[in-house]
Amino acid sequence: AKLLVLHGPNLNLLGTREPEVYGRTTLAQIDADLGERAQAAGHALESLQSNAEHVLVDRIQAARGDGTALILINPAAFTHTSVAIRDALAAVAIPFIEIHLSNPHTREDFRRHSYFSDLALGVVCGFGADSYRYALEAAIKRLAR
Ligand code: DQA
């Protein structure tokens, strides 16, 4: 099946961005690892990072017509602000898993609320770059049902 991985704002800086919070793995390393694992399981995986809300909304809308079976998304700061991305995911009705490197529940109060969690299949947070791996594993298992 076809899997789409979406990364929100500032995740292009992974590796150097607050490494004590987000680790030292780069986004390119995460995407390469996910791509290999998806391929080994017989799936196709495409990744997109954007700092722009509308780019993520447009990509989600396009996913309705391109055969995407499941979306893995780290909305980053948009987690806590974006009704537009939430609405796009609801509109296309493609199942998605919410991912965070950090555990937002242990951080500032404003990170405790997510516009996504109540619509998500599940949420993986707090395991650094491994959060993406665990989410992919859950996605692969679900696609095999
Ligand atoms: C994040 C957590 C968000 O609160 C933050 O704005 C991010 C990254 C994470 O992966 O831990 O940019 O989504």
Automatic annotation (TrEMBL):
<dbReference type="GO" id="GO:0008652">
    <property type="term" value="P:amino acid biosynthetic process"/>
</dbReference>
<feature type="active site" description="Proton acceptor">
    <location>
        <position position="22"/>
    </location>
</feature>
<protein>
    <recommendedName>
        <fullName>3-dehydroquinate dehydratase</fullName>
        <ecNumber>4.2.1.10</ecNumber>
    </recommendedName>
</protein>
<feature type="active site" description="Proton donor">
    <location>
        <position position="100"/>
    </location>
</feature>
<dbReference type="Pfam" id="PF01220">
    <property type="entry name" value="DHquinase_II"/>
</dbReference>
<dbReference type="GO" id="GO:0003855">
    <property type="term" value="F:3-dehydroquinate dehydratase activity"/>
</dbReference>
<keyword id="KW-0028">Amino-acid biosynthesis</keyword>
<comment type="subunit">
    <text>Homododecamer.</text>
</comment>
<keyword id="KW-0456">Lyase</keyword>
<dbReference type="InterPro" id="IPR036441">
    <property type="entry name" value="DHquinase_II_sf"/>
</dbReference>
<dbReference type="InterPro" id="IPR001874">
    <property type="entry name" value="DHquinase_II"/>
</dbReference>
<feature type="binding site">
    <location>
        <position position="74"/>
    </location>
    <ligand>
        <name>substrate</name>
    </ligand>
</feature>
<feature type="binding site">
    <location>
        <position position="87"/>
    </location>
    <ligand>
        <name>substrate</name>
    </ligand>
</feature>
<dbReference type="GO" id="GO:0019631">
    <property type="term" value="P:quinate catabolic process"/>
</dbReference>
<feature type="site" description="Transition state stabilizer">
    <location>
        <position position="17"/>
    </location>
</feature>
<dbReference type="InterPro" id="IPR018509">
    <property type="entry name" value="DHquinase_II_CS"/>
</dbReference>
<keyword id="KW-0057">Aromatic amino acid biosynthesis</keyword>
<feature type="binding site">
    <location>
        <position position="80"/>
    </location>
    <ligand>
        <name>substrate</name>
    </ligand>
</feature>
<comment type="function">
    <text>Catalyzes a trans-dehydration via an enolate intermediate.</text>
</comment>
<feature type="binding site">
    <location>
        <begin position="101"/>
        <end position="102"/>
    </location>
    <ligand>
        <name>substrate</name>
    </ligand>
</feature>
<dbReference type="GO" id="GO:0009073">
    <property type="term" value="P:aromatic amino acid family biosynthetic process"/>
</dbReference>
<comment type="similarity">
    <text>Belongs to the type-II 3-dehydroquinase family.</text>
</comment>
<dbReference type="GO" id="GO:0009423">
    <property type="term" value="P:chorismate biosynthetic process"/>
</dbReference>
<feature type="binding site">
    <location>
        <position position="111"/>
    </location>
    <ligand>
        <name>substrate</name>
    </ligand>
</feature>
<comment type="pathway">
    <text>Metabolic intermediate biosynthesis; chorismate biosynthesis; chorismate from D-erythrose 4-phosphate and phosphoenolpyruvate: step 3/7.</text>
</comment>
